[in-house]
């Protein structure tokens, strides 16, 4: 089990300049998008044996190239001296993660957090609709980031999800607000909406873990992102 020390090892100031970060984003983001396209093609291709074998050979070559120089393990949270944070492996917002829809969260001054996003055919649960676990993933991230945006970052303690109507695949919007903060706990609520209105509602409790609260007491620093 990871303890708080292990967690801190995944919070790294890697000293990159903002220019270097922008160059990395420009390099790796298109790769994640290509892989997202491949996820959809894996489901939708009608290729025969020859086409699929040929495509797999290209993918195998791509894997060999990408393996030449690589890291191992999770990406963690990286930041630099100017305070640019990167969670590029994150399953919901990670710029380098093709599993992420991704959510491009918008943070408003009034505390509201929202994103327009797209769920492709790879997020299917019931025929033609989004998997309920994927909706929960989106809402967990959205509400967690809403708590963080309000200055109360924390781990999800409880996420309550109410599925009002099936969520169609395709273009969707999610939005959330902070409800209140009580000590170590921040309460946020939000929705996912499709063309016919709200499909999913959620409430979440985000809790600053004990070690983070102790760190705050000792250092006065609010904690990690
Ligand atoms: C690495 C760290 C960075 C964190 C900063 C991240 C910020 C960046 C945000 C970006 C957005 C990410 C969005 C994705 C977020 C996930 O996906 S997180 C992953 C899923 N969640 C987890 O794995 C959490 C696992 N559980 C835990 O780590 C611990 O049980 C918790 C939730 C941190 C609480 O532990 P604790 O600090 O020891 O709690 P404890 O002192 O016993 O209780 C504190 C208070 O919380 C209440 N409480 C405790 N557990 C619960 C619960 N499960 N439900 C409701 N209330 C509870 C207690 O009753 C108590 O209330 P009061 O008595 O103060 O009224």
UniProtKB/TrEMBL annotation:
Broad enzyme group: hydrolase
EC number(s) given by UniProt: 3.1.2.2
UniProtKB keywords: Apoptosis, Cell membrane, Cell projection, Cytoplasm, Fatty acid metabolism, Hydrolase, Lipid metabolism, Membrane, Transit peptide
Thioesterase domain boundaries: 128-187
Highest taxon listed in the record's lineage: Bacteria
Reaction equation(s) it catalyzes: octanoyl-CoA + H2O = octanoate + CoA + H(+); (9Z)-octadecenoyl-CoA + H2O = (9Z)-octadecenoate + CoA + H(+); hexadecanoyl-CoA + H2O = hexadecanoate + CoA + H(+); dodecanoyl-CoA + H2O = dodecanoate + CoA + H(+)
Gene3D superfamilies: Hotdog Thioesterase (3.10.129.10)
Sample GO molecular function, one term: hydrolase activity
Keyword Transit peptide applies: yes
CDD domains: PaaI_thioesterase
Membrane topology: Peripheral membrane protein
Family: Belongs to the THEM4/THEM5 thioesterase family.
UniProt-recorded name of the protein: Acyl-coenzyme A thioesterase THEM4
Species of the source: Rhodococcus artemisiae
